[in-house]
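Here is one chain, start to finish.
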Amino acid sequence: MSAIDSLRSALSDPNLAYLLLMLAVLGISVEILTPGLIFPSTLGIISGLFAFLALSTLAVNPVGIALIIIPLGFFIAEALVRSKGLITVSGLISIVLGSIFLFNGGAPNRANLFLIAGTTIVVSAVLVFTANRVVISQRKRIATGLEEFKGSMAVVRTVLNPEGTVFF
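Its structure:
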């Protein structure tokens, strides 16, 4: 048995495939909400590739995959629109439904329901926390650079015509 065959055999577990897919969604979503971190997107992309390799060996419902991946668009929209969490909640509901409908077949071909519940709770908590921190940071007043001085009071020392001296 070659190394690729043994890897494919290990990845044929629905629980591992589900975990990799959710890790991919989480990593890419965190990178969307907080651009520039690099590590979450790298982890998400690698996990996503392994997840799709694992899912290719299992009986998978394409609607379930779509319901898990489409929320990435919801999280992008939340970062741009700020719907007070409504779009994020829609994305999380979509992830839950996608997790339930992901695998075709009987019980041996499905991910463990406790794993689905735990993973969904963790992913939801991380995404809600991250989105909340992003909103809070965007509402804060700028504290560095020339922008922080806008609207501040200063004392004029000489006539400003068009330049002069100001005490700040």
